[in-house]
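Quick log. Single chain, no ligands specified.
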Amino acid sequence: LFASYSKGFRAGGLNGRLIRPQTSVPSYAPDTNDAYEAGFKSELFGNRVQLNGTVFYQRYKGIQQTIADPAIQFRVANAGDARLYGFELELNAAPIEGLRIDAALGYTNSEFQDVPVTVGPINGNRLPFAPQWTGSVSVDYAIPLGTAGTLTPHVDWRVQ
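-> predicted structure:
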């Protein structure tokens, strides 16, 4: 069993490449992220099966996002707050000699919150690059070829 808490941040900065002259260069403040995680790792059936699971919760304050801006084209801005929570499950199995099966399933619920009007109408939207569901399965089968080595066909499938 394990549990963890971590706090991270990204530094603020300035946006460059202005398209139209401006009285000042747009800037953005640092953002912070509080991340909580708990889970387990297990070995079953004489180490032939491993089952791992994790639940997580993250809270961003002042999350930095790239937004459209007519004066710059795109710029980094503090887009309010965001929260994410979900789980991940992973199964690794070697049921017989030479055969390995790996599978994973993940769920993430993410949402922008308290977004300033200047950023745009994204309040309640999911965060970019944070798919709600992910899943994968792969199978390897090692075929001994004597002194020539081993042939290992591999098949995998992934969805998000």
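The mean pLDDT is 94.
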